[in-house]
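dumping this here so i dont lose it again. seq + smiles for 2-acetamido-2-deoxy-beta-D-glucopyranose
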Amino acid sequence: MAKSVFEMFLGLSFVLMLSMSLSPGATDEDRKVYIAYLGSLPERDYSPSSHHFSMLQAVIKQSSVANYLIRSYKRSFNGFAAKLTNEEANKLASMKEVVSIFPNKVYHLQTTRSWDFLGLKDSVKRNPTVESDVIIGVIDSGIWPESESFSDKGFGPAPKKWKGSCSGGKNFTCNNKLIGARFYNSEEPREESARDGDGHGTHTASTAAGNNVEDASFFGLAQGTARGGVPSARIAAYKVCKQNGCASADILAAFDDAIADGVDLITISVGSTTRSDFYQDSIAIGAFHAAEKGILTVQSAGNEGRLGKQGVTSVVPWILTVAASSIDRRFFSKVVLGNGKTLNGLSINSFDLKKTKFPLVYGKEIANLGCNEEITARVCETGCLNSTLVKEKIVLCDQFRGNNEARDAGAAGSILKTEIDDVSFVLPLAASALSTDNYESVKSYLNSTKRPVAEILRSETIEDSAAPVVAPFSSRGPNFMEPDIMKPDLSAPGVDILAAFSPIGSPSGNPADKRQVKYSILSGTSMSCPHAAAVAAYVKTFHPEWSPSAIQSALMTTAFPMDQSTNPDGELAYGSGHVNPVKATDPGLVYEVVKGDYIKFLCSIGYDSEKLRRISGDNSTCSKTSENILPRDLNYPSLTAQILPDKSFTVGFHRTVTNVGIASSTYKAKVSSNSKLEVKVDPEVLSFKALKEKKSFNVTVTGDALSLFSMVSASLEWSDGTHSVKSPIVIHSYKSFRLEGSTL
Ligand SMILES: *[C@@H]1O[C@H](CO)[C@@H](O)[C@H](O)[C@H]1NC(C)=O
Ligand SMILES: *[C@@H]1O[C@H](CO)[C@@H](O)[C@H](O)[C@H]1NC(C)=O
Ligand SMILES: *[C@@H]1O[C@H](CO)[C@@H](O)[C@H](O)[C@H]1NC(C)=O
Ligand SMILES: *[C@@H]1O[C@H](CO)[C@@H](O)[C@H](O)[C@H]1NC(C)=O
Ligand SMILES: *[C@@H]1O[C@H](CO)[C@@H](O)[C@H](O)[C@H]1NC(C)=O
């Protein structure tokens, strides 16, 4: 599993797919795990399991189908996972009760200071009693229940609404802080516990809701009080990720359980690296049913990086999608050469070389037999460094990922070349990653003397005044599936975050790195996701009755604007901006979306009435009039439209805001736009006389032709003098990937 963005840079980013054939029997070899999604649960007189069973019996020509049914989803929505042949899956797909069928797919897992940086100080106003009734569901790699971050000192019994259980397996005990745990095994190898062998799930859970733990650090680095955003909240852990990834059948099962267990919010730092339409995306399906039950799902945007790459894969409007940005603390590690020259590199280096200088060697000069010096040894490819020759030396590797081979071959340290200049990672040996210029100067020093030596110092931290800057790895928009819905929604801290860890997990991701730590430093949108989830929970403690969309809106419209000059990808990188916890509790106005709006949205993207009804569980239809509804008319807190390139354009948006601020208030529209867009708001003034009162307005955006793959933006702000309710306006000409007329 790609536990953090770190492994992406290591090139370890698990191409390993799950072994799909589960049973040794010959006839079972062609079987794979498929998920049959049947939509909402019918209201009454329905036995999901026996229905699933009879559906299977109808397609599988075997006397006993029991072995093939892996799981029934029946607590919060309807469906099942089963081992099927291709042919059986096709037959099932043609049944009228099936909304969609899709193969089990591998998803990937994609601090102390971070909360202060966000302005959510320890001393901030809180509602501890209400907060202790909030339950955060963490769908991840499990949890380390004995971590101090999850101790239940001072916690009363679980909230009354809790209907879950502690089913964490053998030797797994919950408490009044960690109130529930479950694990799932749709694929081999089975793991019989919710215990986190990796560290990722422990890290995300503690970032969201860990206790205040004083004097936490990674070997003295990033020392301080580790705490979650809502330290009084409860945690329920759902383990869906194992060594080889997170199976969609398990993710769906976790949603089915979490919703029925009674969580208030779901945080899921898991994503796919390939696109799928959302009726085949278990996170989108699970989150849809969660939203229906009043539960907001917060998901990481993904670690696919810069524009032009894959793009953000968390695409549906009922999920809050979170990009990752830096905080004002950065780690660097100095390299001191024998000639006295000192170079700053990046890494989180806890190793102390005790002021010893070690001989320097270049990977290419100590190649193992069978390894090409120029191709593999130069970059310290796995198995390519001669351990006799690298021993007690510092080795230069032309690629960052060479650090693993340097460690495994037994080097004293490693100097790595990197093109990433703003993220530091925990590495399995004393190492520092240098920019190309600095790296080249080490190489010329190496060549300039007979006995080149160097030393790598323990990491130091510096303050970074440029923060927050969206991390280079954070997936960019636009939204290639629903191009009129802006994604990511906002940004939160996800670079070099200290949080609780699993003592049996490897802090560097290298299995040979046996350092046992209680706290570790990770980077990724995986880390920013629980930050935003905690802010959503924090808002909920002030407004327990708010819908998921109201909370989502509050976070988005109050986000800090980010600096375009340090964030050249603009809204495509950070969406509405950087999450602002304290402001989010008092947004003034919210853009609410009710189920009926999502239903219209589904019609607008091509659902027919039959599929729609299976999902909605009611008599909804996609009528002729609803065919005229555009996806961008969903009452979303950001305004985005995809337009055709090379043509001037006029696009309209309809929006409705609900007053949640001051009963009698008047909001004026303010538009910030560069010369490229003309924005008209009608009406320009909204006067409210009561709370919960709704007012509608229209926005018309006009502009000259854009070339293909470009974006222009503006912003709309409603202000009553106290509240500022901001929405980005993004017009882009990126192509979308949704196939024209694709069958649902
Ligand atoms: C239970 O788990 C803890 C933490 O890993 C471990 O220290 C202990 O030995 C385990 N006990 C048993 C009986 O396996
Ligand atoms: C490693 O280097 C030593 C010393 O030069 C040499 O004897 C040995 O054969 C090399 N090992 C491999 C695997 O290339
Ligand atoms: C050192 O110099 C030689 C000759 O100029 C060159 O071939 C070699 O690539 C250089 N090595 C490094 C590490 O720059
Ligand atoms: C759907 O419509 C039928 C007939 O109009 C009605 O009897 C039924 O109660 C409706 N079901 C729901 C869930 O609204
Ligand atoms: C917005 O535009 C629609 C037509 O596109 C119109 O029916 C509606 O009255 C307008 N709303 C406002 C508040 O101007």
